[in-house]
Target: Tetratricopeptide repeat protein 23-like isoform X2
Amino acid sequence: MDDMNNRCGQQEMRTEIFGTPAIKLTQALKRAEKFTKGKKMRQAHRERIRCVALTRIIYGKGHWRLAQALANLAHSYLMLLGFPVQAVQHANSAKGTILIGGRPPQVPAEEMKQILSTLLTIYYTLGVAHWMQKNGKESLFNLEKAECVMKELQQTELEETTEQKISEEDLAAALGRACLLQNKPLMATRHFEKAISAVISARGEMAPELIDLYQETAHIEQVKKNHKKSIEYLLQAHCVVLTVHTKFSPQAASAALLLGKAYAASGEQKDAEMAEMYFNESLLACKAALGSGHSQTINALEEFSKWLVHMGKREQAYDLLQESFMSQPDLCSDFSEKAAERFYIMGGICLAEQKVKEGYQWLSKALDASNQGFCFQIREEVGRAFLDHTHKSHVIRGCTMERNGSRIQIEFKKLDESDFISSYRN
Model:
């Protein structure tokens, strides 16, 4: 076995030294695919750069093969490294090379398919890269061009000999996100539903790719205030999550939290029981999978406690928040921003219960946590009724503080007890 590996290594070394550019290009392409499948992103990207250099040597500057290599490099910058600026630069270079060379008048059908596939990669990469940069107009423009190229590509009566980087569901999902960025929720929903159908046709009803698609579609329905439809999509996502992952996993916790928030957002009394059930499920899954001190667990706990306050279950919310500090005694940790927010909620609960002294202590701790350099922002003025020990209303002067670019303003004003509303928002 060792002798065989040594011979293979020696053969590769001879190819690197004495091989022609064409042989080296073939080897570089194989290595790029191998590294990509092995999740070795930087090594795969390095091979893509080598492919561009070798292709330019072999075919020259105006050949469509160079455009193909540049398109693959742009796609690598986007999908492997997450660098949209470099992806746009190389995709535009690939597009320029295609446009300068033009479509050859007579080429073999298989080559024409590769040219179309290259155009699809170019426009898809440009579309997604612009979406990552929040440039909705350019994103949608390029993705719609990619859609036209894909339709032309699907009409070719050729065998699937060329591996296509961009699938139908990838393009449909990208179009949905671009439409959402352009405030076109109806179009976005249609594209996401198309992506869902494509995934189900290709990989079945329990494919992991469906989780994000269901959740993104649910978000659109929630934006449209269609809570019932949103919950339906989230239930489907939750079902897939429990099939792919275990019940006590971070993914299951996230899916349950989204369901809890969706039921809570409906505002209907009949959904309150379901909201509490899924909030509890999310919190239990987070604790089991990640521990009580993890940021995802604390986030689930905060969402649950805010909903409990909204439902008038202040004592239960207070106990939950207090319990979270027992598992995280060190407030000078990465989660002190979250600690300040929890202090703030607990202070609000105490004020609502007319526990002035205790409420003031919690709010002071919230300010102390932020004074230590942890920045959080309270976005609206907070009115609170403070009742002193003789049950007479009085006013405590508000304070405003700025630190590290974050503005914190808390104002206590004289209000009737009935005016108390928890105004804490993320």
Notes: Residues 15-154 form a domain with the Serine Threonine Protein Phosphatase 5, Tetratricopeptide repeat fold (CATH 1.25.40.10). Residues 169 and 198 are 6 Å apart (CA to CA).
